Amino acid sequence: AEFQRRAPALAPLGAYVLHCFGAFHFEGITPRLPTRTFEGRLDLTVGAKRVELIEVGPAHTRGDVLVHVPADRTVFTGDIVFANAHPIIWAGPVANWVRACDRILAMEVEMIVPGHGPLCGLEVVSELRAYLLHLQSEAKRCLAAGLSREEAARAVALDDYASWGDAER
Asked: Strand, coil or helix: what is 113?
């Protein structure tokens, strides 16, 4: 309720955030801090399966982690993979995100559980990697042309990615 009351005063960002998160209710939620943390990698056994937690951030956020289940040839990517949607880069740099894609592509997996979009395979990760490199190239072009951030955001050519969702990101 407080968020919805304050969001209009933050226009236009507030309106956008309200559009994205307005349906969610955050009242009555008690945050729970982690009881265990790690850096780099943590191997666990869950039931009878080996599970590998692999730190790949900062990319989307500072705490990006892949959850690889080798026996199931599956990786849960969190927000490292946005399937056929434009990702949002909160932390970066883009080079870390490209390395995270490379890490996934090197895994012997058949199933990718993305943070956004439907279950997919490695081809979606390859497309995302190409998109990130395209975005980086476009950003360098805009910087060299002396464009402001706002001008650059409007000037980036979406090319093969124009059909992806959430282009405002």
From this structure: strand
